Description:
Layout: E1 7-8, E2 13-14, E3 19-20, E4 25-26, E5 30-32, E6 37-38, E7 43-44, E8 48-50, E9 55-56, E10 61-64, E11 77-80, E12 85-86, E13 91-93, E14 101-104, E15 109-110, E16 115-116, E17 121-122, E18 127-128, E19 133-134, E20 139-140, E21 145-146, E22 151-152, E23 157-158, E24 163-164, E25 169-170, E26 178-181, E27 186-190, H1 192-197, H2 202-217, H3 222-232, H4 237-247
Amino acid sequence: xxxxxxxxxxxxxxxxxxxxxxxxxxxxxxxxxxxxxxxxxxxxxxxxxxxxxxxxxxxxxxxxxxxxxxxxxxxxxxxxxxxxxxxxxxxxxxxxxxxxxxxxxxxxxxxxxxxxxxxxxxxxxxxxxxxxxxxxxxxxxxxxxxxxxxxxxxxxxxxxxxxxxxxxxxxxxxxxxxxxxxxxxxxxxxxxxxxxxxxxxxxxxxxxxxxxxxxxxxxxxxxxxxxxxxxxxxxxxxxxxxxxxxxxxxxxxxxxxxxxxxxxxxx
Length: 267
């Protein structure tokens, strides 16, 4: 159902079954998938690519231009995956020339007042809680959960299945499968509850815990820790993901508890 009180540009491409409520504005270069509900007082701007069966609540703005002084009007996009929910006043800015797109995956929940800046990439099945702020170029892996009012520094990566405690300032990369909390942000264990809920076996959880004990609690530097992991921890998809993430962490990873950072660049 399309409300007669909505303003939809004739060039916008809306699939079958899309609902648009009153006082919503949809620009010309927009695609919206079947069955998506766009609530009242939503603004969908040029470059929006919204999937099927999404829900977009009042006050949300999808695909506004980047808050980046280098942006020169280039054609870029903002993508929202199927079955994703954008709650009240969520903002998802489109990309810049560097990556060309901002992307939020499928089956995500972005709660009220979340901001996703230009060139971010958010995976599938993520929960981003109220008032979380993602700066430009942030990457968030699948199944990650970000606690409310957290602020994520530009270019930070957060690994798959990670859990960030509410109110966190995330200045360093957060490896997959871990919990991070406190100030400054610190390793707080493995996200074992979340992993078990998603079908990880007890053996998988134990091996992940062993792996991160080496990274965060052994006193070894990063390269020594990775070498020991590859020598002592059985090969698995989880080990490969964790090792590759830590090795590629250009900003360095978060600290271990009560210790100086494990990377030269740690705060």
